[in-house]
Amino acid sequence: MPFYSLSLFYDVRAEKVGPSGGHQMQRCFRQRLVLSTLSVKRVKIPNIRSKDDNLGLRDFEVSFIRLLDKHECNVQRSIGYYLEALLMLAPFVKTPLRAALKGVTNDPTDPSVDLLKVTAIPLMKKFGIDGDGLEIKVLKRGMAPAGGGEVLFTCPVRRSMKPVQLTEPGKIKRIRGTAFSVRVSPQMANRIVDSARSILNKFIPDIYIYTDHMKGASSGKSPGFGLTLVAETVNGTFLGAEVMSTPQGQGDPVLPEDLGRNCAKLLLEEIYRGGCVDSTNQSLALLYMTLGQQDVSKSLLGPLSPYT
C-alpha cells in the first residue's frame, strides 16, 4: 500500500445539481474527503446547502478541511468529529502522526475521546496498528459549548492492514468505565457511578468505573459531566456506550442519576445488537478491511448505524 501525505485532493463548489444530489454528498462530507485523500482522487461536492438560508460550508466543516494540515478544532463540533477521520488516515501517512487537538472533548453529538480511546484503539491493534506510538491521551477536558480541552493523538505508520477474522464476539467478561465531572461538584461523578452500577450489577459482577474530576486549567471553560462505559468479551471485543450532560445554556438539564442509568441501558442495548465491532467503530473496521488484502478479512457486525 502506498504512503500518503496529508495533502487533500478536493474541489468544493456551490454549483446546482439535481434536487437531492448536493444534500446526499454533504451528508458524507468527512468520509468523502478522507477517501479522496487515501485514494489520491479529486472529489467535487456541489450545491452545498443551496436551499438553506445559510449557504455553503459550516465553520466546523471548514475547520475539518484545515485540520488535515493543522489542528485547532472548531467548538461547534467535538474533537471526536475530527479524531474519527484522523483514525482513518493516520496509519497511512509518511511519518508517525503526533496531533495535539484542542477544543471540545465531550459533547452529546459526537463520539467522545474517551469512547474512541477504549473502543477504536483496541480495534486498530487487531489490524496490526500497535506499539508504544498508538495512544489517545486526554490532557485537558473541555465540555461544550466553550471547550478548552486538549487531546494528544499519536499513531505509528503501517504499511498494510493485518487480515482479521472477527466472527465470534464471545461472552462479556467485564465492564469498565469513566465517570467525569468538570467545573461541578466531584460528587456528580460518584452519583453517576452508583446509578450505573444499580443496573449493571444485575448482569455481571466484574465492574469498575473510574471517577475523573479535573480542576483548574485542566477543566476547560464550561461545566459538565458524563459517563463512558465499555464491555469487554472473552474474545477481545470492545463494545462502548456513553452519555453526556446537556451543554450549558442548551436544553433541559439532566440529573447525574438519570445519566448513569441511561448510559448503562445504552451499553446493554449495544451488547444486545451483537457483532464484533460496536456501532461507533463499524465504519472504521470496514475501511481498514477495504484497504487490506482482498477477500481475506471477515467481521460480524450488528445492525448498521446510519453513519456506517
From TrEMBL:
GO terms of molecular function: RNA endonuclease activity
Chief localisation class: nucleus
Residue stretches making up the RNA 3'-terminal phosphate cyclase insert domain: 167-271
A single cellular component GO annotation: nucleolus
Subcellular location: Nucleus, Nucleolus
InterPro entries named among the record's database cross-references: RNA3'-term_phos_cycl_insert, RNA3'_phos_cyclase_dom, RNA3'_phos_cyclase_dom_sf, RNA3'_term_phos_cyc, RNA3'_term_phos_cyc_type_2, RNA3'_term_phos_cycl-like_CS, RNA3'P_cycl/enolpyr_Trfase_a/b, RPTC_insert
Hydrolase as UniProt keyword: no
Lipid biosynthesis as UniProt keyword: no
Any single biological process term in GO: endonucleolytic cleavage of tricistronic rRNA transcript (SSU-rRNA, 5.8S rRNA, LSU-rRNA)
Highest taxon in the source lineage: Eukaryota
Domain RNA 3'-terminal phosphate cyclase, chain residue ranges per copy: 27-70, 76-307
PROSITE patterns: RTC (PS01287)
Keywords: Nucleus, Ribosome biogenesis
Family assignment from sequence similarity: Belongs to the RNA 3'-terminal cyclase family. Type 2 subfamily.
Record-given protein name: RNA terminal phosphate cyclase-like 1
Organism of derivation: Sinocyclocheilus rhinocerous
